[in-house]
Protein: acylphosphatase
Organism: Nesterenkonia alkaliphila
Amino acid sequence: MIQTTLRITESRALSYRIPETRSSQPKFVNYAVALTAEASDGTISEGSGEGQPRGWMTGDNAGNSWGFLSEVIRRLESVELDISSTARAVTSVQTQMAEFFTLAEQRSPDSVNRHPFRGSLLAVETALLDLTARALSVPLTALITEGAGADTAGDSDLPQEIAGPAAGAESSDEFQRAARRPFDWEQDTVPVAQHDDLLQALLILETAVRRADHSQGVLGLDLGGLLDMRAGKAFVRRVVALAVQGDLPKRVILERVLPRHHRGRTQLLQDEADAALRASGRRDITVELHHQWRYWDHQTPSRQLQVSGRPSVQVIRPTQYGSLLRTAEAVERISSEHPEAVLLLADFPGATSLSRAALRSLARACPGARAHITDAADGGEYPVGAPHGADSGHGVALAYEAIVGDVREMTTYPAPPQPTYEGRPVAVYHDVDHLHPLGPNGSKGHLLERQALALGLSTTRYSKGAFRAGDGSRAPLIFKWSRNPLSSAASLALSTHKEGTRMQLQRAGVPVPQGRTFANGDFATAKQFVDRIGYPVVVKPAMGVRGIGVVAGIQNEQELEAAFDIMASSKLGKQDFIVEKHINGRDYRIVVVGDEVIAAIQREPASVFGDGESTIAELLLNKNIARKRNPHLWARPAKYDAAARHELKKAGMTLSSVPAQGERVLLANTCSLSQGGDSIDVLDELHPSIIEACIRTVNAIPQLEYCGVDFLLEDHTKPLDQQDAGICELNAHAAIGNCEYPMFGSGKPVAETVMRACIDHYGLTARSEPAEEVALHLTIRGKVTGVGFRKWLQRRARSSGLTGWVRNVDRKTVEAVLVGETVAATAVAAATILGPRAAVPTSYVAQHVEKPDVRDFVIREDTAVRVKNLAKKVTVQAGREARRLKIYRPKNAQEAGAA
């Protein structure tokens, strides 16, 4: 049966960081698209592609490139492609991509950017071509050749591949052998700071010397901006010397020798190369230097070739075309119009094995391309793609297990089932988008202020974590992160010291594990204590936080020795430590305010539950995407690290394993939420005896009014006297987001309860109910003018659906009014303490005002400020003109009149 149609049944996009290399600072972010489709005969096919969004260089700074790609992925679901022949398959892909190119122009808010989202579009087209090629059982080269209209199917052998930046010295000895002879540092006056970089570049050159194919007559090298000006000159002189000696082809092109911010000096390096060639007397050798070119279509390199005074080597990047098919067509047209030109196909830095496979297919399909450059050290070794074993498509399949730890975003259509925990659905929170701009700990530092403003108080914020709130009549209350004025400093100090806490709780008669504190390094005495109380035990720092250095469930002396090493090597390893009896049970955080338990969560280690179809890698990705919709957990993903690998190995599984329906697979041995643990709301299920013990525990610490009780329980629904249980820690500044935003179940209003308790305790005047909408007047101080603060605030306010205005007051003050929903308005207000990248706000004051009559968020110009700025500009211009005319400031009125 001949396949005629191919219907896409699943479309997925992923955003992931490339591991950092010497030449990839900062880390690059790539997009991958994976498609699954069913043919008319029921056959299932898959295809994948990668794009490299690189800001202005690929048009992906035109707007929200990830949002655009997500919309494209949604539109791909259920799309049908005609695969009755190779030609019709290519036409179907071209038709679909033409729609997406039009959509890209519509989604770009900047009309100046005429080539938006090319890096994103390349991932989509490559996946579509790979999908159809695999469905037709033909190599990707065949489809590209068909689309380009080439007369030949291209060379069967790959063009020469040249090593990219930082390609590979493994020792200083290799550096010293670079380019065949030692380097005379004094003669070439290369600064010491550039020695390693220049040696690295020379090693790349030596590799090129060994691989050079002199019959091709051209060699291309991309250094990725590795060198400064002096090192660049020394490198260029070495290249000329090797070419004169006959060790290099007679035409050499060097791309991106200098970093981006010095690319304007490339012509100076070209002058250096020309001078060295003239001195050698060789007129048959050409050394050309290029910085980054924007090649959006074939006209750009074509024009460059027309104005060039000599035969040229041009670098063509498919990412800037957003299409393999358009790139192949451009290569064909350029080579026909300029047959003397040498065209090099290249990736952008950070391209991985997935991109490399597509580039090789493109190179085979383009007989007009004489060679291509690769940047192998920037990402080519990062195994995003793995060979799928079939001689079709570009030969590589997306390897989820390779990128699971680096994925930042994922979009899948149709949407996969939400993760569950023992039948409990994932909790949904609608304020996550408002809290994202505040950073990973945004909810921790903001929720109390949100409630203060909702209840009618005014606030002054000094940092991301510290603010004060007041009613204007009484002394304001001071807050820092989750710390509040309900508890005294003495109670905070006592609850932080674990040994002192245990002794106090023992006197109160609440269950605590048997244990003892030991001096730093006194492991011998600790072993004797363990021999007396017996295994299993727990080892932890005496004054610890966030589970740092804690090792639980120690079963024997060998594990005890390892636990001592782990604890000692942690950030808190240089203090006293505690050894205590391990309690078999689950981990619970129970929050107490005054004499009331207001929230309780069960904390479980990171895990996934099988569905009988998905691999562990896919389940983990889906779990982390669900966590990204949680305001407290979005920056705390479940990790694939040494602990996860250890747990999988114990279970006899890998990331490629497919667990059965409902089977739980552990990925960690700690319940820490920061390490990917799950939180489950259990307040309504707590047994009364547990609630009573928690209240008695907090009351045992004088002046402690707010506390998180960490309880180990076998079953939270049973009485304490019927189970093994113990309180292992008190946290007097427990993160509010833990119980406000549990992963499973329903969140509890911890922030509102704490703020009301503070208001009642100190007698402040506040609203009886939180306001759903507010109008806030902000006075923001610091380095907030001349840094784009007003434009930034306008964008943030509009994206959050707020109205109001913003204006400059003076050189260090900005004034604004935010009107809208309380959740959105207070989040934007909190974000002003961060501001745009160049700003350094030091504080803001938020006060309630009457709602102004505005329907948009506008930038207001203050008349006095505008006049002052205009006067300043006039003064500056007058000074420049005076200096030009050599007119100096007169000493008196008579000289002024003469002037």
Summary: The first helix runs from residue 65 to 76. The mean pLDDT is 84.
